[in-house]
Amino acid sequence: IPDAMDAEGVAGVTCAKVAQDLDLSEFVTCRYMAAAMQLGLLNSPATASNGKKLFVLSSAGKFLRTDTPGNAVAFTLMINEETAKAWRAAGTKSIKTGEKGGFMEAFGEGVWTYHAKHPEKEKQFDMAMEAVAPSMIGAILADYAPPNENVTFCDIGGGQGTVVANFLQHYPGAKGKLFDQTSVVANANAYLATTDVGDRVEVVGGSFFEPLPKTFGECDVFFLKFILHDWDDASAIKILKNVLAVSRPGSVLTNADFILGSHPSRSSLEQFKALMDINMLASCPMGARERSLADFKDLFSAAGITGNVTQYDLRDPLSVVEVALHE
Questions:
Q1: Which of 309, 295, 199 is nearest to 252 (CA)?
Q2: Alpha-carbon gap, residue 327 to 322, rounded angstroms
Q3: Dist CA 236 CA 296 (whole Å)
Q4: What 3-state class would DSSP assign to 259?
Q5: pLDDT for residue 308
Q6: How many whole angstroms separate alpha carbon 16 and alpha carbon 30?
Q7: Is residue 62 classed as helix, strand or coil in its secondary structure?
Q8: Which residues contact 64 (CB under 8 A, 6 or more apart)?
Q9: Which residues pair with 259 in a beta bridge?
Q10: In Å, what is the CA distance from 271 to each residue of 18, 52, 88, 230, 268?
Q11: Rounded distance, CA 77 to CA 89, Å?
Q12: Could you read off the pLDDT of 264-281 as tens digits, one per residue?
């Protein structure tokens, strides 16, 4: 509907015309558009000659257009499809057994296995993560600084490379390495080619549950964003041990996640993180969760990482926890 509306221009369009153009029920379409106006997604600045409301997209509504940079279309579809079913299963099945996460209960397999079998869903997930990335990346670049500006920055589980590309654009003297599942990084070089930093990024496919390739021994910063919260403690410790095993003296692990309790004076942020904790239960294997700073210190210690830990609170619900990999 938002895409169809824009074609009508800034003067607005009636819900009847939208229904006609998209071959939808006028009765149902008009009710949805009336509700969207109450949610602030549409405005009605005028009426048509027949007295019907003319609708235009609000600033928020424009983010539901597929051609709006950073649009929320993929994210909105994702949370209303598999994610909704996973939440329902978590609240009706996982809560009773405590054995499987919501996604496993709803679909009979884990989310990553499911994505591997349904590449269109994997692409939708990647697009959703890319859409929410800019504000978080901006907060990271504004409030966190690497050990020096000429580091080799290695994004572990970095998708198609949005974070590493932005980091290298911000630090012209830095180099990067991108690591994720082979199917995920298959399109990374094409994406990086659209930036001005593609020649400074090495793209490697694989699993972070296996020993990391030797090339990652060159990393100064091992960056993990929204990785550890996807997994139970044992799996998270395995990832951390693999990072530690390949790392060199002087390197650091920089973990970006929603840290529980890091914004005690801002209840809205803590409420958001509490709901994200439920989302981990619903979307990921049993044991996945948001963690406190104390929880992360326990993970680091269990993985044999005993260096100094520093927490950076950002202008975002996200926080960064950095730990020296070697004392």
A1: 309
A2: 13
A3: 10
A4: strand
A5: 94
A6: 7
A7: helix
A8: 2, 41, 57, 71, 72, 73, 76
A9: 291
A10: 37, 40, 20, 19, 5
A11: 18
A12: 777 888 999 999 999 999
Return the bridge partners of 56, or none: 43
Residue with tokens 């930036």: 195
Q: How many helices (H) and strands (E) does the chain have?
A: 15, 11
Contacts for 245-249 with beta carbons within 8 Å, 24 or more apart?
A: 245/211, 245/212, 246/211, 246/212, 246/213, 246/214, 246/216, 246/217, 246/219, 247/216, 247/217, 247/219, 247/222, 247/325, 247/326, 248/217, 248/218, 248/219, 248/326, 249/326
Quote the CA–CA distance of 15 and 48 in Å, as a whole number. Answer: 11
Segment 123-132 shows an average pLDDT of 82
Tell me the Ramachandran region of residue 144: left when phi exceeds 0, alpha when psi lies from -120 to 50, beta otherwise: beta
Cα–Cα distance, 39 to 60 (Å, whole number) = 10
Report the length, in residues, of the chain: 327
pTM across the whole model = 0.84
**Digit-coded pLDDT (tens) for 10-65:** 678 999 999 999 999 999 999 999 999 999 999 998 787 778 899 999 999 999 99
pLDDT-based confidence at residue 9 (cuts at 50, 70, 90): low
